[in-house]
């Protein structure tokens, strides 16, 4: 099967590397070869760095989707505008889609999954939430026969690092965030992580898989770590607690027997 890769940033280049270096392993496990046949990015310099091994490269993502040689479209450009259009175009062309775009799925997941079901194609999104665990596959497959009552987890690595460093060093939030940016752990604009938005995106997807809940991240009460100070850590230690940002989802059954899904970050 031919793979088309849209976006050759750090993650995209890593995907190209895995497809190249693990080609024989993937073929043995799948029973057929999985080959990168085409890639697209507006930055032409990224093609050389990604070592595409003969795959066609240009800046035309629409042509990549329309290419008959491409059976699977991997979207790795991020955002909720162009990415949404491209994924819906791929589904319309009956191409399977792989994405790690949690923000897009948290906002437009129902539209995308409904379109995929209608077209008879798959949308794989394991990388969008805790891909290294993996949690979505565990919920969807390993725990498929279980009734999930609640979800509790630390789902944002950036804020977890910041809180751990603040606790260790006694420094302010801004000082630690700046160091995290220098180390590459935090984005130039860290507000999505710091304000809990990234965690809310991920919790939206977890709730959809675990409970079948249809909601957007904006419906989840969210409080990030922006107001945390060194004094909060001193108070927490005095009472025997530690400060972490948790994503929490609970199932609640009302007096009428109807289930209500509660979530907070």
Mean pLDDT: 91
Query: Which class of the largest domain in CATH terms?
Result: Alpha Beta
Topology-level CATH name of the largest domain: Rossmann fold
Largest sheet: 6 strands, parallel
Percentage of β-strand residues:
15-25%
**DSSP summary: helix tally:** 12
What would you give as the CATH superfamily of the largest domain?
A: NAD(P)-binding Rossmann-like Domain
Please count the beta strands (DSSP E, at least 2 residues each): 9
Characterization of the model:
The protein is an alpha/beta fold and 265 residues long. It has two domains: 2-128, 3-Layer(aba) Sandwich (Rossmann fold); 150-264, Dihydrodipicolinate Reductase, domain 2. The chain has twelve helices and nine strands. The strands form two sheets. The protein has a six-stranded parallel β-sheet with strand order 3-2-1-4-5-6, with helices on both faces. A three-stranded antiparallel β-sheet has the order 7-8-9, covered by helices on one side. A hairpin with a 5-residue loop joins strand 8 and strand 9 (259-264). Helix 5 (82-92) runs parallel beside helix 6 and helix 6 runs parallel beside helix 11. It is globular and about 60 Å long. The two termini are 40 Å apart. The model has no long low-confidence stretch (mean pLDDT 91).
């Amino acid at each position: 099967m031919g793979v088309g890769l849209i976006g050759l940033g750090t993650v995209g280049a890593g995907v190209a590397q895995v497809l190249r270096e693990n080609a024989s392993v993937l073929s043995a496990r799948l029973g057929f070869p999985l080959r990168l046949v085409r890639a697209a990015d507006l930055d032409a310099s990224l093609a050389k760095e990604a070592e595409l091994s003969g795959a066609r490269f240009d800046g035309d993502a629409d042509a990549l989707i329309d290419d008959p040689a491409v059976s699977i479209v991997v979207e790795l450009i991020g955002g909720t505008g162009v990415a949404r259009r491209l994924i819906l175009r791929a589904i319309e062309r009956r191409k399977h889609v792989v994405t790690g775009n949690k923000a897009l799925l948290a906002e437009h997941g129902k539209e995308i999954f409904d379109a995929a079901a209608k077209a008879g194609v798959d949308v794989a999104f394991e990388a969008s939430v805790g891909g290294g665990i993996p949690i979505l596959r565990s919920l969807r497959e390993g725990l498929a026969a279980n009734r999930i009552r609640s979800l509790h987890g630390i789902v944002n690595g950036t804020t977890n690092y910041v809180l751990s460093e603040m606790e260790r060093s006694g420094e302010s939030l801004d000082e630690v965030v700046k160091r995290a940016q220098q180390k590459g752990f935090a984005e130039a604009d860290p507000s999505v992580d710091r304000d809990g938005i990234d965690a809310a995106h991920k919790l939206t997807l977890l709730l959809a898989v675990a409970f079948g809940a249809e909601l957007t991240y904006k419906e989840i009460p969210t409080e990030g770590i922006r107001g945390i100070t060194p004094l909060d850590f001193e108070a927490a230690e005095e009472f025997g607690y530690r400060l972490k940002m948790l994503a929490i989802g609970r199932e609640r059954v009302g007096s009428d027997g109807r289930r209500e899904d509660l979530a907070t970050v």
